[in-house]
Amino acid sequence: MFLEKFSRFVRRYHLVFRPAHKAAPAMPLVADEGQFSVLDALEKRRADGTALLKQKNGDVLEMVKVEHFPERGVLVLLFHRGSPDAADPMYRRRIEGGHTVRQAEKEEDEEQSVSAHLVISTKAIDDGRFDASLEEIPGINMSLVQQIMAQALHEYPYDYQIGKRKIKTLETVCLVKAEGLKSETISGALKEGKIDFITFIKPAPAKYVDADGLWEPMNDIMRLKVKGKIDADGWQDKIGALVEEARADGWEDFNIEIDLGNKRSKTIALDREQDAKEILFVKSEEIEVATELSPCSVDFQDEVIDSCLAIMQPKVVP
After folding, report:
1. Rounded to whole angstroms, how far apart are CA atoms 71 and 306?
2. CA 120 to CA 15: how far, in whole Å?
3. In this structure, which of 35, 130, 199, 316 has its CB flanked by the most CB atoms within 10 Å?
4. Which of 32, 11, 22, 234 is nearest to 133 (CA)?
5. How far is it, in rounded angstroms, from Cα 60 to Cα 146?
6. HSE (CB half, 13 Å, CA atoms) of 309?
7. Tens digit of pLDDT for each residue in 261-318?
8. CB 6 within 8 A of CB 293
9. Nearest of 265, 288, 269, 289 to residue 279 by alpha carbon
10. What is the pLDDT of the chain when averaged over all its residues?
11. Beta bridge partners of 61
12. What whole-number distance in Å separates Cα of residue 175 and Cα of residue 16?
């Protein structure tokens, strides 16, 4: 996947911060210096160089910067993903009669890297719940980002007290959970996109018994390519009728794959009670900037932060 110079896609989430013990107070996202906060936990982890995850293939995802912007009302984290074993990129040029290619060479101790911003609103939607946007970059996803944040918070215990007459001091930690914000409907996506495939799934018959435990039957899968046009107004009737007929033939689970344009697609599972109903799903939103964006940066990009903030402000969903 190639990154564009003047645009990025971002995905919206709710980040939920909760104490591990119900009786404990929630840790604030930001606080005065010397007070416990999520920001302080993240910054301590970043400063000692342990805010990172090492992948099986040798890649490293690292939180390299975290900063509170009170005038914007956001907390911003910058992540790098480095790949020391990645092949050097190639550049192509058209010439008369064919093409030439050139390999960009890296210097010693360098590695191919990309970066992504996580922008968190400091205005709570609910107790411990905050709106957030993550820049979508290959190899950097919310699952990995959440792990780095969770590790930092796990190593940052804080005290709380219980009891009235006999006060007892206990210790707890803050937990973090990311919830994708469902902001798009299938009908809305089909106004510009199209359904490419419908997948049927059911348990495979146990025809091939293996007494030695070398294999076991998993799933039967049938994938239908949609050659005709399924429009935004008629998808529920057409897909609903197809799913109803397929269920009668023993198929149990169903996915539809939507081409969203811009070389992006989304696979959506149809629950039994949603077969013919409108469905909300998490959709990435495109932002455009005036200044060329580097694939990897050591500094925050103001236009990315402001664009993420603009996306979050008018559509905060409780």
Report:
1. 12
2. 8
3. 130
4. 11
5. 15
6. 17
7. 777 788 888 876 555 566 777 788 899 999 999 999 999 999 999 999 999 875 444 4
8. yes
9. 269
10. 90
11. 53, 81
12. 8
